[in-house]
């Protein structure tokens, strides 16, 4: 179990970012400026914007502080919302591609790189939350996500709201510094061994995200076996005939429909307290 | 990957008109989201303000401005979700059904009268911010569910009501400043 958690936590994506030409001074032959980075899947893209801009600061037309608010990311003409985990964004955008996972030989023989664009402009896309207050704003958003998750897990947000200020800061620092031990130590103060509900966000490309909570546990009985599965969840949203054509992705892995949601949450929940699952409707 | 799609229209003209209104609403909501997470009183916010005025003028020109609140009134619908392959409900929410929202003021901010409103379940949460600002005639408002957390701006009101309702009402506390950090 711990090994899986560690793999999820350490999972990272190789990303090649094409910088918007209006952001930089012209390059010879109008070439694009490309930056290669490796970003943890279980984090927000916006946490790394400052670092990325610092790497290209000699090419920028303006100071970083002037442009950072007007920057966002896109892939395959879809806006990448910074407030979703990077891995979830990857699953949403790339999950429908046939070679998403590739064959075993392919996985061993070449490095996969996700090509995205850093866009810049005063007209920010709809649904993109403008980042004006840097990391503090991102931290505040993340804490509210945890409070919401805690409400579903425990019936109230008290466990998050009553965390000592030091613990709250350490919790956030563990995300920034990628310290799993520290993160798990504070996370365990928020989540019971048998949570009331499991907070789940269901993503599907070009569809609104859906908030779902699995309600099959009984907090009065610690030995209750949770039987709610991915298949049960799908049955609530999709027609029975189409369920067999649905591929479910979580942290970059195709998960079977008969997998228990509580098991999935315990090993694959994200750093914001939610279990993000991506629905891919097979069209072939 | 939330998005808003306009309702079906009878004519091409109607269709283009609805799209304009929907886009305006989206920009309006984006601005709301900015202030929601503490983005006020600086240059980007002023730029957004100008945009808002621009779109308000546009709305006035096509004579649709007042319809923005129709999602909150009991009659017509302005924005409906895209046609989706998902079933619309988990339990009892039907497409375009309205849910009850109870507004509770925090601190010295004005009280909403009445305190309970019916709002379309398919609206994104920032619609509530726009509604409160308009009703209370204030520039900034911060909202919290069950005196605990500020929801993700992409979340749909119906989902929040489904998960956090108390006696069939979603309790939304509001304040002129940050109340729960």
UniProtKB/TrEMBL annotation, chain A:
Any coiled-coil regions, as ranges: none
Membrane topology reported for the UniProt record: Peripheral membrane protein
Subunit structure, interactors included: Conjugated with ATG12.
Limits of the Autophagy protein ATG5 alpha-helical bundle region domain: 136-191
Keywords (A to Z) from UniProt: Autophagy, Isopeptide bond, Membrane, Protein transport, Transport, Ubl conjugation
Entry-linked Gene3D superfamilies: 3.10.20.620, Autophagy protein Apg5, helix rich domain, Phosphatidylinositol 3-kinase Catalytic Subunit, Chain A, domain 1
InterPro entries linked to this entry: Atg5, ATG5_HBR, Atg5_HR, ATG5_UblA, Atg5_UblA_dom_sf, ATG5_UblB
Phylogenetic lineage: Eukaryota, Fungi, Dikarya, Ascomycota, Saccharomycotina
GO MF annotation, one: Atg8-family ligase activity
Locations listed in the record: Preautophagosomal structure membrane
Family label: Belongs to the ATG5 family.
Main subcellular localisation: membrane
Protein name: Autophagy protein 5
Organism: Maudiozyma exigua
Function: Involved in cytoplasm to vacuole transport (Cvt) and autophagic vesicle formation.
Biological processes, Gene Ontology terms: autophagy of mitochondrion; cellular response to nitrogen starvation; piecemeal microautophagy of the nucleus; protein transport
From TrEMBL, chain B:
UniProt xrefs under InterPro entries: Atg12, Ubiquitin-like_domsf
Gene Ontology terms, MF aspect: Atg8-family ligase activity
CDD domains: Ubl_ATG12
Stored Gene3D superfamilies: Phosphatidylinositol 3-kinase Catalytic Subunit, Chain A, domain 1
Protein name in the entry: Ubiquitin-like protein ATG12
Annotated function: Ubiquitin-like protein involved in cytoplasm to vacuole transport (Cvt), autophagy vesicles formation, mitophagy, and nucleophagy.
Keyword Membrane: yes
A GO BP entry: autophagosome maturation
UniProt-listed PANTHER family: AUTOPHAGY PROTEIN 12, UBIQUITIN-LIKE PROTEIN ATG12
Compartments where located: Preautophagosomal structure membrane
Organism listed in the record: Maudiozyma exigua
Gene: ATG12
Record-level GO cellular component terms: Atg12-Atg5-Atg16 complex; autophagosome membrane; phagophore assembly site membrane
Quaternary structure, from the entry: Forms a conjugate with ATG5.
Origin: domain of life: Eukaryota
Keyword annotations: Autophagy, Isopeptide bond, Membrane, Protein transport, Transport, Ubl conjugation pathway
Broad class of where this protein is predominantly found: membrane
Membrane topology according to the record: Peripheral membrane protein
Coiled coil: none
Family per record: Belongs to the ATG12 family.
Keyword Signal tagged: no
Annotated spans, Disordered: 1-33
């Amino acid at each position: 179990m711990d090994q899986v958690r560690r793999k999820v936590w350490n999972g990272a994506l190789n990303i090649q970012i094409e910088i918007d030409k209006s952001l930089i001074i012209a390059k010879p032959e109008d070439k694009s400026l490309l930056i290669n980075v490796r970003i943890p899947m279980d984090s927000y893209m916006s946490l790394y914007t400052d670092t990325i801009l610092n790497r290209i600061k000699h090419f920028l037309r303006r100071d970083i502080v002037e442009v950072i608010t007007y920057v966002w990311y896109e892939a395959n003409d879809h806006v990448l919302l910074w407030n979703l985990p990077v891995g979830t964004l990857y699953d949403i955008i790339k999950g429908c591609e046939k070679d998403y996972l590739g064959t075993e030989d392919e996985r061993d023989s070449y490095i996969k790189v996700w090509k995205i664009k850093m866009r810049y402009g005063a007209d920010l896309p709809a649904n993109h939350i403008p980042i004006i207050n840097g990391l503090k704003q991102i931290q505040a958003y993340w804490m509210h996500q945890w409070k919401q998750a805690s409400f579903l897990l425990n019936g109230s947000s008290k466990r998050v709201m009553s965390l000592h200020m030091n613990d709250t800061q350490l919790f956030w620092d563990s995300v920034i510094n990628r310290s799993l031990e520290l993160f798990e130590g504070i996370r365990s103060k928020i989540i019971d061994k048998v949570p009331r509900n499991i907070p789940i966000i269901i993503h599907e490309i070009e569809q609104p995200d859906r908030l779902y909570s699995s309600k099959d546990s009984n907090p009065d009985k610690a030995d209750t076996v949770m039987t709610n599965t991915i298949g049960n969840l799908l049955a609530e949203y999709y027609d029975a005939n189409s369920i067999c054509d649905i591929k479910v992705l979580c942290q970059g892995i195709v998960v079977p429909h008969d997998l228990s949601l509580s098991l999935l949450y315990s090993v694959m929940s994200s750093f914001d307290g939610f279990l993000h699952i991506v629905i891919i409707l097979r069209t072939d | 990957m939330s998005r808003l799609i306009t309702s079906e229209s009878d004519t091409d003209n109607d269709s283009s008109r609805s799209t304009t209104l929907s886009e305006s609403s989206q920009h309006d909501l984006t601005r709301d989201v900015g202030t929601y997470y503490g983005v006020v009183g600086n240059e980007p916010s002023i730029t957004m303000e100008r945009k808002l005025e621009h779109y308000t003028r546009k709305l006035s020109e096509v004579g649709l401005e007042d319809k923005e609140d129709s999602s909150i009134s009991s009659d017509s619908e302005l924005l409906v979700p895209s046609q989706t392959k998902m079933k619309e409900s988990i339990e009892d929410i039907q497409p375009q059904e309205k849910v009850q929202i109870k507004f509770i003021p925090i601190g010295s901010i004005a009280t909403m009268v009445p305190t309970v409103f019916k709002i379309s379940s398919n609206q994104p949460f920032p619609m509530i911010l726009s509604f409160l600002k308009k009703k209370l005639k204030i520039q900034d408002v911060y909202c919290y569910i069950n005196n605990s957390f500020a929801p993700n701006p992409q979340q749909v009101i119906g989902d929040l009501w489904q998960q956090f309702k108390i006696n069939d009402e979603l309790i939304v506390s509001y304040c002129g400043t940050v109340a729960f950090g």
